[in-house]
Amino acid sequence: MKYLATLYLICLIKVCVTVNFAHLCGYSLTADTFVECSTADAADCADLCDVTDTCIGFEYFEETGDCNLINAIRNVESNYTFCSFYMKTTTKQMTIQGRSLSTTDQMLQNLLYESQGTCPDGWRTASTKCTLKLSEEKCAEFASFLNASYSNGLCVIPLITLKPICPTDVTTWALKAYSDGYYCLKVIPRFAGSPAPLSYVDACQQACANIGGYFASIHSAAENSDMICMFFQHLTVSITDFTAINGGGSQGMAIGLISVTGQIVGNWSMSWYDNTTVTYKNWGGGPETTVADRPVFQLTIIMPDTFWHTNYLNFNAFFDTIACKQKARNVRVLGSV
Ligand SMILES: *[C@@H]1O[C@H](CO)[C@@H](O)[C@H](O)[C@H]1NC(C)=O
Ligand SMILES: *[C@@H]1O[C@H](CO)[C@@H](O)[C@H](O)[C@H]1NC(C)=O
Ligand SMILES: *[C@@H]1O[C@H](CO)[C@@H](O)[C@H](O)[C@H]1NC(C)=O
Ligand SMILES: *[C@@H]1O[C@H](CO)[C@@H](O)[C@H](O)[C@H]1NC(C)=O
C-alpha cells in the first residue's frame, strides 16, 4: 500500500505525477497488456507493476478492480473519456535537440529511452537505425514524433546520436576535436589597463569566465596551432617576419600557463590555470630564474614567433589578446552523425 499517499486519483484532463506512476486522466494509451488481474485499488495495481520486471504502466478500473499491466506503450493521446491509464515515470530526462514535445510526449520519450541509449529500450541497434520486429499495424501506432516507419518486416526508428556543441554562443566559439575530447576556443581582446587588484592571470581567467569559458590550456601541437591561427586573425599589425619574436608586430596572446608558486624554477615548474597537467610544451626563451629584474611570474604570452614566452620582457606592452577555452557539451540529435 506504499503508493496510497502518493497516488492522486482525482484528475480531469491532467497528468498527475506520483513517485513512480503518472495517472493520465483524460488520456488514452496505445499499449500492450501482458497481465490481467484484479486488485483492491490503484495503489495495489501500481505495486504489482512496480515489482514486475517488464511493466511500464497499467490500466486500472475503479468499478471492477481490474488491473491490466502494460509492457509496451506506443502513444499517449488526449481523450477525455479515459481516466484509467497510468504510465511509469522516470527522473531521467531524454532531450533531443530540435524536438520539442508536449508534457505527455516527453514522458513517453523519457520512458522509451529510459537507459538513455541510441535506441529505445528493447530495440535493436543497427549501424544507421533502430529496429524492432513488429507488425506493420502496430508500427503505425507509434506517436508521430518518434519517426517510426515500416520496412521489410521491421519497425524502424532513427538513431539518436551524441553531437558535441559549444555550450555558449555557438557562432563565435570554434569547436575543435583533440585526443582529450571536444573543446571550444575563442580569442578575445585583453582588458584595458592594469588588472589590479587582480593578478594578470586572474584577470584573464575573469575575462574568459565572463563569456562562459576559462583561461586556456594547450595540450597538443594541433591545439597550439589552432590557437595560433585564431591569435593571428586578431592581429591588427602586419607580420613581416614570423621567425622573429615580434614578427614585425608587437602583439601577444595570453595563455593559461602559470606558476602556482609565483616563482619560475625551470620550464617544468609551470602548470595550467585549469589544473590540467602540462603534457605538451612549446617554450620560447625562458622561463628564467636568473634575470634579476623579473623573477616573479606574471603572465605567459604567445608571440608571433608562435612560441610560449613566460615573463617576456615588458610583457604588458605586448599582451593584447586572451586565449579562452571551454569543454564542448554533448547534445542528442536525430540520425547518425
Ligand atoms: C476517444 O476514445 C473513444 C473510445 O475509444 C473514441 O471513440 C473517440 O473517437 C476518442 N476521441 C478522440 C478525440 O480521439
Ligand atoms: C521526423 O519527423 C518529422 C515530422 O514528423 C520530420 O520533420 C523530420 O524530418 C523527421 N526526421 C527524420 C530523421 O526522419
Ligand atoms: C625552457 O625551454 C626553452 C626552450 O626549450 C629554453 O630556451 C630555456 O632555456 C628553458 N628554460 C629553463 C629555465 O629551463
Ligand atoms: C585548480 O585548483 C585550485 C586549487 O585546488 C582551485 O582553487 C581552482 O579552483 C582550480 N581551478 C579550476 C579551473 O578547476
UniProtKB/TrEMBL annotation:
Name of the molecule in the record: Apple domain-containing protein
Keywords for this protein: Signal
Highest taxon above the source species: Eukaryota
Extent of the signal sequence: 1-18
InterPro entries: C-type_lectin-like/link_sf, CTDL_fold, Pan_app
Ranges of residues in domain Apple: 16-90
